[in-house]
Amino acid sequence: MQLVTRADLGWPESAAAAQPTALGVKVHYEGTPVSTDLLTDHDRCLREWQNIRASHLSNKAEGYVDVAYNYAACPHGFLMEGRGIGRRTGANGNQTLNRNHYAIVGLVGDSGLTEPTPEMLNAIRDGIELLQAHGAGPEIRGHRDGYATSCPGGPLYAWVQAGAPRPDAPAQPDPAPVKPPAPAPEPARYRTTINGLEYGYGAHGDHVTAVGEALVARGFGGHYQQGPGPDWSDADTANYQEFQRSLGYSGSDADGVPGEASLRQLLGYLPSAVPAFPGREYFRPGAVNDYVERLGEQLVRRGFGGHYRVGPSRDWGEADRLNVAAFQRSRAELAGDADGYPGPLTWRLLFS
Ligand SMILES: [Zn+2]
Ligand SMILES: [Zn+2]
Q1: Per-residue confidence (pLDDT) for residue 300, from 0 to 100
Q2: So what's the pLDDT on residue 173?
Q3: To which H or E segment does residue 4 belong?
Q4: Coil, helix or strand for 227?
Q5: For 104, which DSSP code?
């Protein structure tokens, strides 16, 4: 927008009555011969606008206190301030019409310069949008709408009737259908099992409390009204989700239900359910059973798999015993009896 203000024109603040809102804007023309010399010299536009104001101020019949229009638009695309924003126009024919619409005049006439340039149409549009941003409603009319006058002349009136489009506006594609705002997603309410322990809404246990306390310790406790506690709630899910996002997870990987990787990062290890100790006889030379393999896998998880050549199996062997012994030596409760054969305490400490 190329705006010429009253200050630019050397005019004082308008003395016109305040009119903070209106139904819209009416478009005018000068209604007299206008010289085509305007096209070649913008100084002539400024002089034209000064002359219009002078003629209005000298019009004793109307008693104008200022130029009648809110704005004028020249062929070079300048929007020149008249009464400006928030002032009642004196141009629409009577006081009711003046209250209903603001007024913008295009500097074209009934002879000479009669066709608005594209720049002028853009400037009128600028003025309409400026007024719409400051109290004008959506109506765009011509002076002749509701008043007996030829104003604003054929070309400008045809443009007004077309909706006063910007001449350089590209064809408008159909607007995209308006999507309703997405509802706030429901918190995830499924459970997942990791190492025999449940996580997610409804899960219960000390391991749930441990997750909550770790979240709080890391600054992800914002959704707790109380707790954390042993019952997994939506607050646990929401806090866990923020933790997942902090790790760079998104989408279903950040739904607030733990996965192994994030849980390990949160706790520093992966907790597991403590299975019932089956009995010492399952861990003797020659023993072959699922408990041996499970024990071995847990030793590996806890970092005590160093004696395996090929990994844990169902066959009890010396590698199992050496790994168990290493684990026992690492725990003060077990170090005094680190024979490599698991009893109930070794079992519980290994799996918890
Ligand atoms: Zn008019
Ligand atoms: Zn001009």
Answers
A1: 94
A2: 57
A3: strand 2-4
A4: coil
A5: E
184 domain-assigned: no
The pLDDT of residue 62: 84
Alpha carbon of 352 to ligand 2 centroid (Å): 84
117 belongs to a structural domain: yes
Please check whether residues 80 and 105 belong to one and the same domain.
yes
Residue 187 has what pLDDT?
A: 86
The answer to whether residues 263 and 294 belong to one domain is: no
329 and 215 in a common domain: no
Q: Are residues 212 and 326 in the same domain?
A: no
Distance 185 CA to ligand 2 centre (A): 56
CA of 38 to the centre of ligand 2 (A): 7
Tell whether 6 and 72 lie within a shared domain.
Answer: yes
- Residue 323's Cβ-side half-sphere holds a number of Cα atoms within 13 Å equal to 27
Count the domains in the chain.
Answer: 3
Domain range spanning residue 218? Answer: 191-267
- Give the count of alpha carbons within 13 A of 220, CB side only: 21
Q: Which residue has the tokens 């646990």?
A: 236
| Residue 130 shares a structural domain with residue 43 | yes
CB under 8 A, 24+ apart: contacts of 49-56:
49/4, 49/9, 49/74, 49/80, 49/82, 49/107, 50/9, 52/105, 53/11, 53/82, 56/90
Positions in the chain short of pLDDT 70: 169-184
- Which ligand is closest to the CA of 145, given by its number? 1
